[in-house]
Write the structure tokens for this entry.
Amino acid sequence: MSYITLTPEPSLLTARAGGVTLGETRGAQRLQEGAYPPVLYVPRADIDMSRLTKTSRTTTCPHKGLCSYYSVQTPQGVLENAVWSYENPKAELAAIAGHLAFYPDKVSLA
């Protein structure tokens, strides 16, 4: 699993979608997988989960495990499958359990 690294991201990050702030965190984890762009995983506790609805979509990653998806409710409408989570990741990546990641074309994280 040497091509996947996980490091704490100490910067203050704010998640926004459709003009709504979903949350802020200093507890994100930066996951770097090979040559892919890094993905920030934000603790669920720092996000307004009342705006997220779990969908029936799932995928499987051979390195991370089963992935679940969430849609985001905004004043402009629903952003389908805009968020993903490895709720029970494989042991090597246990630090992303209880965290959410966001599709950058649907949710800004800066």
